[in-house]
From TrEMBL, chains A, B:
InterPro entries: HTH_LacI (IPR000843), LacI/GalR-like_sensor (IPR046335), Lambda_DNA-bd_dom_sf (IPR010982), Peripla_BP_I (IPR028082). This is LacI family DNA-binding transcriptional regulator. GO terms for molecular function: DNA-binding transcription factor activity; transcription cis-regulatory region binding. The keyword Transmembrane helix does not apply.
Amino acid sequence: MATIKDIAKIAGVSVTTVSRALNGYSDVSEKTRSRVEQVAKELKYSPNAVARTLVMNKSKTIGLLVSDLNRAGAKDMFTYEVMCGINDSVSDEDYDLILFSTNHDKQQVKTYTQLCQERQVEGVIMQGVRMNDTYLTEIMDSQIPCVLIDVELEGDSVGYVSTDNVFGAQMAVKHLVNLGHKKIGFINGHDQALVSKKRREGYEKELTSAGITIDESLIANGEFNELQAEIVARDILTKHQDITAFFCASDLMALGAMRAIQQKGLRIPEDISIVGFDDITLAQYTSPPLTTVSQDKYQMGYVAAKLLIGMLTNSDQARKTILDNQLIKRGSTAPVKR
Amino acid sequence: MATIKDIAKIAGVSVTTVSRALNGYSDVSEKTRSRVEQVAKELKYSPNAVARTLVMNKSKTIGLLVSDLNRAGAKDMFTYEVMCGINDSVSDEDYDLILFSTNHDKQQVKTYTQLCQERQVEGVIMQGVRMNDTYLTEIMDSQIPCVLIDVELEGDSVGYVSTDNVFGAQMAVKHLVNLGHKKIGFINGHDQALVSKKRREGYEKELTSAGITIDESLIANGEFNELQAEIVARDILTKHQDITAFFCASDLMALGAMRAIQQKGLRIPEDISIVGFDDITLAQYTSPPLTTVSQDKYQMGYVAAKLLIGMLTNSDQARKTILDNQLIKRGSTAPVKR
DNA sequence: TTGTATGCGTTATCAG
DNA sequence: CTGATAACGCATACAA
């Protein structure tokens, strides 16, 4: 509650002097400085960041804009882990984080720029955007620096962090191909996700280079949803009795597919091999444990924040980073029976 | 970037009028109001919450203070789910959330009051505090309304949300007792957690009422840590060959204990029954699926925020809520062999 | 080395 | 119904 005014009065100096003393300016005598600091301590003074923001036009605040922050995300801990990385990163740099959750409806009510201006955030990290979210175009038009997670869009003030989804998918499919699989189903996310495009690209690329022709009827969208994945997996299994493997664009969907497989009376990995994507915690605990492409979610968040803060301070900073993925071989994949 | 000043100039009125027109005051003619709104829209005006905070002394901001926000928490999604509840709740009421992560070290650098004052948060929700965190006493002394998650401390401006941990533990133990278990190990968290005290209380209460005497050597702290729980479980199993069940104060620790049990060549639930606490997502996927006491974490967050906002608006608001828990019976418990 | 005056964007008071 | 003015807490250009 104490302000520099209070300090000034007690210390018998002007507010200007207090301000400068506390901010470490050199043009203040050691004597007054120590006196001011003394009084500040006595009064348990702490600077009002709000007032400072107003006058400096710098809030030292970063907006964390999460699309669909909800319980559904609880199974795959993606958002949480990314957040941990961001949090560690920003506190290193003495920024604070303000959390916005958004969704399609909210985006109609308040524009991106409004959202940012109201709270005077210096920059934004956006997680979970869809390609058709209205905010995405606004971000590109806006001057406010923004780093996107898993959306590879670049602009003057827009950068991104992603993992190498094409290569990740290639590793997954190559692993299956090496095990002798030829008929490999692909359960993708949805068309609004860039990662889905990328993972499909990897899937097709690897099959092609293995001399296997793409069969559209082996591919379906599971909407990144466990249940939906189960449904489409069941459908594919019914249509293709001779399928021997699945590649799923997320572990969560792999869980759904596993259920479909097991309900058909098929065994994993003896009858059907399956590979997921993400390496969520659950992946280690399914039976059998799930082979998957691991993404370092914490690192994604950490790097995203670093990138953003870099952009905030110097403009010709690199604006994108692609992290490597890793294939984690577990029990859900095996050589094809013959 | 547009301010009310800009609007005033263009609309040909004073800033006062603009302010009142935009804030829906009645003492402004319909004509000027619509004119002002028109101009505001043209200029894509959005109010500067920072300036407003300064003058109103109300930030419409709630601090979410999380102790040890890190990857370790990724397995039990506690914090994430609580956060989702809080987020939904505060956005209902048009508050924003600012995220602070703290730990023992950080608490020495900046006091609780400083942290709050700097960002002018109106209230705080605190998750993951330990009984010996210095912030805890500061919270009690502070005037800033605060709601604690799972720490049952009450004061003039302090409330809490928790679940009925005593009863939850009792349900767990009663379930085991009903299955015929008499020698029931208890892997607790640590002494700095209130929930640990409570769960122990429930454990002892239920055993006593079943006529079973408490054996201290069957009880150990697993520090809410999977590995530590595995270690102490192994220890107890070695010392007590005739133990038939475990009650663990968290699912995460139950995972550790399960590993210890299985490594001993014992089967779950045939040889050893086990009950956890929390109902984390993983609990459904272990083999066998884990019987556990379910806490509605989302609801905890939701209620916490509601409580806090209530305290912010009227002072004689209820300050605490205890939510019910639920025993979820799964495959990890069975009648005792004889 | 220190102090005075001004402004950041908004709301509130009070007079017209 | 409207407007001039002060105030919130802080930083800074300028003056002394």
